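request received
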Amino acid sequence: MATLDILYFAWVREAIGRDGETVEHPGAEATIADLIDSLVPRGPGYAEAFADRSRLRAALDHAFVPLETPLGNAHELALFPPVTGG
Amino acid sequence: MIHIRIGEEGFDPAALLEPLERLGGGAVASFTGIVRGGGGLVSMRLDHYPAMTERRIAHIVEEARARWPLLGVTVVHRVGDLQPEDRIVFVGTASIHRAAALESCAFLIDWLKSSAPFWKKESFLDGRSQWVEARAEDDAARDRWMKS
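response:
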């Protein structure tokens, strides 16, 4: 069974209450947004973290991508707020 | 010469500039970012995405090298706990010409701010803490480089 590692950063991590988790890979055609939808029922923290998709960003195998991107064969998905470095 | 470092340790800008000055170019430019105090800020925490950060910065540095004739680039970014007036980021560039050094330095810091996986959380005197919101101005500063 293929799996997908999900990492959470900043307030996404705090709302969910964990750094990340491994889930069953939902298939290459599923988008990041689809996966997020499937995570929401896991708890109130998820619903809070994913309530406003406009404030959410993603990286798939370490490349920034839009939430509409299909997961393909990626192994690692990261979900986080817009970056604030520098 | 490409030097990229991400870590919790502080840094000395003078020590970072010296190797850039020895590359034989006539121009070295640098930017140092400092944690801004005021507003009751007592500390700042910087999180990042370790598996991605260095690779992402290396990519931004390559973009700069494709645009300007650079002899050297140094990028240092601190993570972890910082206090007001601590140095947080350093970008240094060396080139034959001043315009290339200055412009590439501005390009690099603009891209670092809006395109590298760092997140700041501020803590205040009254016990409040909050994640810093991304600013539209920072995206605009980055996007101005896309026109040329």
